[in-house]
Structure formats: C-alpha cells, structure tokens
Design goal:
The chain is an all-alpha fold. The protein has one domain. Helix 1 runs antiparallel to helix 2 and helix 1 crosses helix 4. The radius of gyration is 18 Å and the shape is globular. The protein starts with a helix and ends in a 7-residue tail after the last helix.
C-alpha cells in the first residue's frame, strides 16, 4: 500500500510540474507575440525606426510585465494581489527575468552580428531566455519547489 501511495504522489508531482510548465509556456507564447510584435514594429518603422537592441529592450519590458501578471494568476494560481505582495513579487520576477533578458539580448546580438535575420535571432533569444525565467521564478518569486 505504501508503494502505491508513493507512485500516486510521484504521478501528481509530475502532473503538477507539467501543468505549470504548460501554463508558463502558454503565457510565454503570449509574451513572445507581444515582444516580437513590438520589437519588430519598432525596428521596421511600423511604429518607429529604432536600433534593434533598443527595440528588443522595449519589447522585453512590455512582455515581462504581461507575463508576470498572467503567470501570477494562471500558472502559479496566486490570487493575492495586495499591493505590497504584488510589488515585491513583481520586483523579484523582473530581477530574475533580467537573467533571461541578458541571455536573450546576447543571443540576438550574436546571431545578428553573425549575419542572421533579426526575426530568427529574436526567436532564438526568446527560447534560450525562457527556460531560466521559468526555473528561477518558480523557485524564488512564487516560492515553489522546482520539481513540484
């Protein structure tokens, strides 16, 4: 019987982790669309015509804020939106997301400078930054175990 409970607990842990990864990726997809649309529009003159690094930073800032709110509510099911708690979490989220942001900027810069299209470089940068964002924010911003 004890062995059966352990197997059920393991399955629940895997399901819980998998569902959080799914929601995080879904939120990340919405953030990617926001990031890409803003960054691309700023580089190619749809909104403005600015340097690709500045455009990428603006896209990151907007998508980071939308991702925080969506992850807080949907992924981590944190419904406590008290001012101080949310502000503290947002500060933590942004701080840890900066690591992903630096990774994203570095990848975008490397690939653009190597001659790859900006759009492909941006996709690669977002992908590399996403994994670190999930793990760091799951653990420290929302106080959850990594594998749970």
């Amino acid at each position: 019987m004890e062995n059966n409970l352990g197997a059920k607990s393991n399955k629940m842990t895997i399901l819980s982790f998998s569902s959080k990864v799914f929601y995080f990726l879904l939120v990340g997809l919405s953030g990617f669309i926001i990031n890409y649309a803003i960054s691309y529009s700023l580089v190619h003159g749809t909104i403005l015509n600015i340097w690709y690094i500045h455009a990428t930073l603006i896209g990151i800032a907007v998508s980071t804020t939308s991702n925080f709110l969506l992850n807080k509510y949907f992924t981590f099911r944190d419904r406590n939106f008290s001012y101080l708690r949310t502000l503290r979490q947002y500060g933590s989220y942004v701080s840890f997301t900066m690591i992903g942001t630096l990774i994203q900027l570095l990848v975008v810069w490397i690939f653009v400078e190597m001659g790859y299209m900006y759009s492909l470089s941006l996709i690669l940068g977002v992908g590399f930054g996403a994994l670190s964002n999930f793990l760091l924010n799951k653990k420290w911003t929302f106080g959850e175990k990594i594998w749970h």
